[in-house]
Amino acid sequence: MNRRSIAATILLLATIAFALAPLYRSAVDIPIPVHHVLHAVMMAGTALAGILFAGSLARERRGGAPWLLVAMFAPVFAMILMWPSEYSYFELHPYGHIAEHLGLIFLGFAAGYGGQRYANGIGWASGIGIVAMAVLGVWGYGVAPTTVAPVAATPSAPAAAAAPNAAHGSVLYTQNCAVCHGVAGAGGEGPPLKNERVRKSLTAAEAWIENPAEPMPKLYPGTLSAQDVADVAGYIETLR
Amino acid sequence: MQSRAGARVMWIYLGTGIAIFALMTLAGILLRAAQAGWIPVDPGTFYSILSLHGVGMIVAMAIAGLGTLWYLVRREIDLDERIAYLAYGFFIAGVVSAIISVVPGRYGSLWTMLYPLPFVGTYWPSWATGAWLIGNALVMLGFMLWCAQILGALLEKYGGVRGMLAIDYVFAKRAFTEAGRKPPPPAMFAAAITAFDGFITGMVGLVIGTALLVHLIDPSVAIDPLWAKNLTYLFGHSIANLAMYMAVAGVYVGLPMCTKRAYHTSPQLAVAWWATLLFVIIAYFHHLYMDFAQMQWMQFVGEIASYLAAIPVVVVTVYGGVMLVHRSGMRWSLGSMFLYGGMIGWVVGGIGAVLDATIPANIDLHNTLWVPAHFHTYLLEGVLLFTLGWAFVNLEQRADAVSSLMLRWLVGLGMFGGGALFVFAFYIAGAAGVPRRYAVEPAPGPLWASVATVGAIVFFIGFAICVFEGVRLASLPKSDVTA
């Protein structure tokens, strides 16, 4: 075992130890941006370990298109694994959260090792790439501005509402509701809306938006159409 | 180093790029005719076609450029063609996914997929947005594979970043040459910058694409609109610019083939490419001049970066190209005509871009038809001409034949004359303040859309003649001179 391999092994073990943190600290205590940074640190550690491991191989063992594929796919899977739902079932359970971290650690290693195994220097590119993806997420992946000015939606003719479109509802929510109810229903001047589905059915949520009690403003039928109301209610039902 | 397999990769990429370009030109003519009021197209269909037109053109130009560059790098370094085919497979799968999104799905929030537009459409179902985002991810993966392969090969060949970018050559030229070392040829700078910045661009495209896909599946995942816009334009602006830098490699090799003179690497050329390397990925800030939430220093950096990313490399390359042609006795074939004409288009489109990136001018030109004016000049009369120039130089040399004078006039009038009329109408309408991306343009938009439609049709006729001539040249037996 040469010095590079020893350094890589120490780095890998240290990162795995770091990834076990959810045993001691619940995910919900940590804001999403900080969470992204911690993921970046984990992947930086293992990507570097991967680069060192691959660098310790003899030159003739380098190359091979499959390693390049591994290095290129790793960041995409990492990005999906970092899904910043506040908070997914995975992250609410410490062992689920650790499993997610182990996945990120593996992908960080795959990016560094796969890239460097393919060609000298590519491990650095894919390793920095996977870490940069996590760091970039800090400013907007699962994170929205804290204050959003209400913007009137385009008035539309009243019509019977079709099935709710939660994605469209999320946009309308950000424009019209988040200023009081907070981003993703976190609460603010108005009450939080997380787990609102437990308190109100979809129909009840729609009825409330159409005819709210003071001080909530009545936006239907002026600002919001019947379909918009259904979409916003559909979105609120997804908040956890 | 070069083999028939290498040339096959190039022709597959080039042929696919040109075929997609032809189809997307027809889509573009339809769009301009609709804006002129010649053909009734409802707004939903208009934005769907506009989305396909945008992504199709970018992918077409990028694929053609990547094929050319791959071939040129392979002349210097051994490359595995399986990776080139794999990347090609990703591009095609991405294009198919985009077509599914637009044709049955009627997706219409344009190729830039700027948040929250993909989620607020009333014309398309959410699966169409999903298909578009998956298509984006596939294209980005293909692009990153290609970039990583080229980057790896260049780093190995030139012994790391210092060698690849000729840093020692610039700072200690005498010692460098006395040691018997040679800097990379000019085309390798284009390859290095494309691969390096392309890797970053692809990664950013994947970040924003994956984030939007996650938001589509789980709307409770919030997205910061300003963050999304920054990433969208970092990836969108950079990839459109890199298409040009890929095609420029064809000039570095094609013009010397026409003039029988060598295009040497100089310290000025190397430094100009360094400027592009550093600034092309932050020049996109100029797309956010009107976003007052953006930090102010970024706006100024955006203006300076816009100048530094483009001006040095245009000046050095075009000056070198003109000097190469000057008194060379070059034969004006279609190939040399396109390469020379492409330099003019690059300069004109570049001036349009630099004007738009200048903050006082941008106040008037922002989001007007000036924007498509400059990038259509840049892509049609720059990137496309470089691509066709490179293809024709090879075809003419292979067959040792030149197209007739009559045909060259027809192609020249169509592609330069029609193309100039087409972009001129964009510039005039842009200067008059006609907004871009409107299915129905306010006055004087429809008038200039009519002029542009005529120009685009004339351009397409010239282009079609050129393609048929290319097929004819390709079918000629290989000359003994080159065999």
Structural commentary:
The complex is a heterodimer of chains A (240) and B (483). With 240 residues, chain A is mainly α. Chain A has helices at residues 3-19, 32-55, 65-81, 89-92, 94-118, 122-137, 166-176, 178-181, 196-199, 202-210, 226-236. Chain A folds into 2 domains: 3-137, no CATH class; 166-236, Cytochrome Bc1 Complex, Chain D, domain 2, CATH 1.10.760. In chain A, α2 (32-55) packs parallel to α5. Mean pLDDT of chain A is 82; it is low at 147-159. Chain B is an all-alpha fold. Chain B is 76% helix and 0% strand. The longest helix of chain B is centred in the middle third of the chain and has 35 residues, at 225-259. The chains are: A mainly alpha (240), B mainly alpha (483). The interface between A and B is large, with 49 and 46 residues.
Can you describe this structure in just a few lines?
The complex is a heterodimer of chains A (240) and B (483). Chain A is an all-alpha fold and 240 residues long. Chain A has helices at 3-19, 32-55, 65-81, 89-92, 94-118, 122-137, 166-176, 178-181, 196-199, 202-210, 226-236.
Would you spell out the secondary-structure blueprint of this structure?
The complex is a heterodimer of chains A (240) and B (483).
Chain A: H1 3-19, H2 32-55, H3 65-81, H4 89-92, H5 94-118, H6 122-137, H7 166-176, H8 178-181, H9 196-199, H10 202-210, H11 226-236
Chain B: H1 4-36, H2 43-76, H3 81-102, H4 126-158, H5 161-164, H6 167-171, H7 173-178, H8 186-217, H9 225-259, H10 267-279, H11 296-325, H12 334-357, H13 359-365, H14 370-399, H15 405-431, H16 445-475
